[in-house]
């Protein structure tokens, strides 16, 4: 937990998550109104992020360049008391390690339903 906290305060790691969050907002804006259900949105976002995932122990530099993530998951849930929004949880694990340890970066945000 302490390692994840330290990583979360370092700029390069924050930039990874912020860029992915930006892409999520762009996808949502481009698809506004086309997602009928929460599950449709979650499936579409996870399909999108999988293009950046290579679940391999030691991928080549070429693979890491095209697929910089070892794992990724997006969870979309309803926001209680706010019917116009979805809560989106983004969890990603890059291929690189910090001090020899794997780590997961996470971000929670909101997306408009319509």
UniProtKB/TrEMBL annotation:
Domain TssC1 C-terminal, first and last residues per copy? 1-111
What InterPro entries has UniProt attached to this entry?
T6SS_TssC-like, TssC1_C
Check the record and name the PANTHER family matching this protein.
Answer: CYTOPLASMIC PROTEIN-RELATED (PTHR35565), TYPE VI SECRETION SYSTEM CONTRACTILE SHEATH LARGE SUBUNIT (PTHR35565:SF1)
State the name under which the record lists this protein. Type VI secretion system contractile sheath large subunit
Supply the source organism for this entry: Pseudomonas aeruginosa
């Amino acid at each position: 937990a302490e390692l994840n906290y330290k990583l979360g305060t370092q700029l390069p790691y924050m930039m990874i998550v912020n860029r992915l969050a930006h892409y999520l907002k762009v996808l949502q804006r481009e698809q506004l109104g086309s997602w009928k259900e929460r599950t449709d949105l979650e499936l579409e976002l996870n399909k999108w992020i999988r293009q950046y995932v290579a679940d391999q122990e030691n991928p080549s530099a070429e693979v890491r360049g095209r697929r910089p993530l070892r794992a990724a998951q997006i969870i979309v849930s309803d926001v209680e008391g706010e019917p116009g929004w979805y809560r989106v949880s983004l969890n990603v694990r890059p291929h690189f390690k910090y001090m020899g340890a794997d780590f997961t970066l996470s971000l929670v945000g909101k997306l408009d339903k319509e």
